[in-house]
């Protein structure tokens, strides 16, 4: 369910998405408000489930995770038991950064970060040993054109 956000809420969220470690004083100054109303708004946004958590972003290449694969999964099994095993296997693998169930010809897409192709093969072998998959296509990302964790807040204007 979408929540109604006013302009101050959107400005606060934009600031938090850019740098959640900044002080309340800094956020308040940037959004032209004072500290207490900003703190109350942030508390309200957390309670509403709009802000789900605070985290840090790490540079995958600095950590040696230079290969990013998009893994397209097709299955011929659509039973609840197969799906539960597949989801458990995917959620248990730290290499899987994102996983989505899709509409169309492809059933699932996974974003997998590993050091290299050999590490991807180990991931793949482990996955197919845990659950039967009809067809897997792995696409190596040659270049990351855009990456962001910031939600587009313009659409939320009343």
Automatic annotation (TrEMBL):
> GO CC annotations?
cytosol
PROSITE patterns linked: HTH_ASNC_2
Q: Which domain of life is it from?
A: Bacteria
Q: Which GO terms describe its molecular function?
A: sequence-specific DNA binding
Q: Which SUPFAM superfamilies does this chain map to?
A: Dimeric alpha+beta barrel, Winged helix' DNA-binding domain
Q: Which PANTHER family match?
A: DNA-BINDING TRANSCRIPTIONAL ACTIVATOR DECR, LEUCINE-RESPONSIVE REGULATORY PROTEIN
Q: Please give the name of this protein.
A: Lrp/AsnC family transcriptional regulator
What species does this protein belong to? Roseinatronobacter bogoriensis subsp. barguzinensis
Question: Source organism lineage?
Answer: Bacteria, Pseudomonadati, Pseudomonadota, Alphaproteobacteria, Rhodobacterales
């Amino acid at each position: 369910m979408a929540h109604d956000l006013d302009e101050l809420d959107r400005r606060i969220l934009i600031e938090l998405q850019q740098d959640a470690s900044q002080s309340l004083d800094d956020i308040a100054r940037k959004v032209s408000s004072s500290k207490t109303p900003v703190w109350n708004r942030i508390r309200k946004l957390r309670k509403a489930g709009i802000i789900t958590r605070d985290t840090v972003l790490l540079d995958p290449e600095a950590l040696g995770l230079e290969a990013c694969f998009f893994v397209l999964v097709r299955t011929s099994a659509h039973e609840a038991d197969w799906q539960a095993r597949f989801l458990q296997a995917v959620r248990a693998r730290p290499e899987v950064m994102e996983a989505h169930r899709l509409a169309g010809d492809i059933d699932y897409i996974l974003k997998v970060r590993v050091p290299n192709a050999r590490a991807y093969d180990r991931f793949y072998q482990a996955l197919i040993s845990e659950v039967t998959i009809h067809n897997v296509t792995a696409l190596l990302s040659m270049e990351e054109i855009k990456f962001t964790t910031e939600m587009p807040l313009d659409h939320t204007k009343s």
